[in-house]
C-alpha cells in the first residue's frame, strides 16, 4: 500500500500527464484490463478518463481497474483516475 507521502509524490508526477485510456459506455472489460496492465508495466503511472456516457460511476470503475490490474489507486480527480503499479522490468519511478 502507498503512504500519504508516496501518493502526494505520485500525484505531482501525474499532474502533467494526459489520460491514455478512456472508459465509456461499455464500462470496464477484460480486454481493457489487459491493455491497462500492459501499459502500467511500461509506464508505471498514468491517467484514465471516465467519459460521461459511462454507465458506472468513477469509483466503481476505479475499483474494477485496481482489482483487475492489481495497481494502486493514487487519486480520482474530476472524471480522471490516476493509477500506479511498480514495473517489474522497466522501473522508472523511485518512491520516497
UniProtKB/TrEMBL annotation:
SMART domains: CRS1_YhbY. The keyword RNA-binding applies. The keyword Nucleus does not apply. Residues 1-96 form the CRM domain. PROSITE patterns: CRM. InterPro entries: RNA-binding_CRM, RNA-binding_domain, RNA-binding_YhbY, YhbY-like_sf. Pfam families: CRS1_YhbY. Keywords: RNA-binding. This is Ribosome assembly RNA-binding protein YhbY. It comes from Cytobacillus spartinae.
Amino acid at each position: 500500500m502507498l503512504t500519504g507521502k508516496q501518493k502526494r509524490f505520485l500525484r505531482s508526477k501525474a499532474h502533467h500527464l494526459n489520460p491514455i485510456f478512456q472508459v465509456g459506455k461499455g464500462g470496464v472489460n477484460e480486454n481493457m484490463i489487459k491493455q491497462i496492465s500492459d501499459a502500467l508495466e511500461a509506464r508505471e503511472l498514468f491517467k484514465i478518463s471516465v467519459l460521461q456516457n459511462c454507465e458506472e460511476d468513477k469509483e466503481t470503475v476505479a475499483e474494477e481497474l485496481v482489482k483487475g490490474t492489481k495497481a494502486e489507486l493514487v487519486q480520482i480527480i474530476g472524471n480522471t483516475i490516476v493509477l500506479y503499479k511498480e514495473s517489474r522490468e522497466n522501473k522508472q519511478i523511485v518512491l520516497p
